[in-house]
Amino acid sequence: MKNITLASFGVPDIDAALEQRIMRSAQKLHDGTGEGAESRGWMSLPVDYDQQEFARIKEVAAHVRDNAEVFITIGIGGSYLGSKAVICALEDTFAQGPGPKMVFAGNQLSSAYMQDLLMFIQDKSVYLNVISKSGTTLEPALAFRLLRNALEAKYGEDGARERIFVTTDAHKGALKSLAAEKGYETFVVPDDIGGRYSALTAVGLLPIAVSGIDIDSLMAGARAAMTLYSQPYAHNDCYQYSALRSALYEDGKKIEILVGYEPSLHYVGEWWKQLFGESEGKDGKGLYPSSMQFTTDLHSLGQYVQQGERRLFETVLYVEDSGARIAIPEDSGNHDGLHYLVGKTLDDANTAARKGVRAAHLGGDVPQISISVPQKNAYYLGQLLYFFEKACAVSAYTLGVNPFNQPGVEAYKKQMFTLLGKEH
Question: How many CA atoms lie within 13 A of 179 on its CB side?
């Protein structure tokens, strides 16, 4: 079976000193001597996950798929981005197949969005999953209060109890207490896995399973990644990715753009931005993680990438086999001047665009790392999630920061709560 592969273009050579630093960081990660070592549960998760909870996730998902028209995932940051990335990558773009419509809430404070959502679910069969370690994070807590009230008004308290699932701390917290009081079925946010590394826990797995995606295959891909990305540097694309981005950072590149050529991978970019942004952006250090969709953004931001300030590089994520074969047809009048494409496919055009953009951007001093995914399926999404998680932790240790904390996140909350009149 093929695996995710790495290549680079226009990147400084990785010298022996940097390779050794990467391997020291990897060793810190593996032996638990680095900062935040108590948050490394994700590393062994693909083989050490709770089998009983995993089976219960599949049972609940099957029940929900048989009975729900709408399934709402309430969460913010790592509590929703991993599941949304996988679901959006693998769901049919337009057709609503069997199973519920997947909806996300609690990731912003828009009254217009909530009003539209409450109207949308009025005449539909609704189930929801609220995800929060504490239960007091403002955005999901507010969304849950509003949606819980709506479900209790619609189904009664007993009926709502059967439709609400809670993913939270195993032992403590406001949401855990509420779940016990109300009798909601619960799933666990592990103590040793932070939110942005939690996509392969119940945090991500329940919504992903409800969407109809094969979570056994997802975990199989992650298990393969555990083995692949524990090999020595010369055979380890994960460590090499960490080294390449470290070399570019030290060479003056301060912005990494994750570029996708498939629109369905948009939320993989959103998940990736949180993973790297919260893990590396500390102590005045870190690459700024950005994302773009090509070829779309070439017609808006392409000019800047080609000729703007030279502080950026691209990491291109592309799928080798899209699974679609759209042949370009003949047009007897050749009105659009595209006769030269007859006999080719849209994939041929997308591949030519990717290679042409690489050549142009290299000419404009934009180095490129490419990550090739053989196919867009659950197995390779599991492999990709683990690839990025491990590369991120190794990169952060190489940078000299704790990959697993996020002290700066609390700053805006203090100001917001003061303005809202919360007593400290």
Answer: 27
Q: Which of 185, 183, 201 is nearest to 193 (CA)?
A: 201
Closest C-alpha to 313, from 358, 261, 373, 269: 358
Instruction: List Cα–Cα distances, 268 to 208, 256, 318, in angstroms.
Output: 14, 15, 12
Find the DSSP H helices in 281-345: 302-307
**Residues carrying an active site annotation:** 278, 299, 413
Q: What is the pLDDT of residues 183-226, one digit of tens each?
A: 999 999 999 999 999 999 999 999 999 999 999 999 999 999 99
For residue 94, give the DSSP letter. Answer: S
Domain boundaries, the chain: 5-33+218-399, 41-213
Task: Determine the Cα–Cα distance for residues 289 and 280; give it in Å rounded to an integer.
Answer: 10
Tell how strand 164-168 and strand 312-321 pair up. unpaired
- Asked whether the predicted pLDDT for residue 86 surpasses 90, the reply is yes
- Which amino acid belongs to residue 209? A
Spatial distance between the Cα atoms of 39 and 402, rounded to a whole number of angstroms: 10
CA distances from 300 to 130, 303, 315, 346, 373 (A): 37, 7, 18, 21, 26
Homologous superfamily of the 41-213 domain (CATH): Glucose-6-phosphate isomerase like protein; domain 1 (3.40.50.10490)
C-alpha–C-alpha distance, residues 25 and 41, integer Å = 17
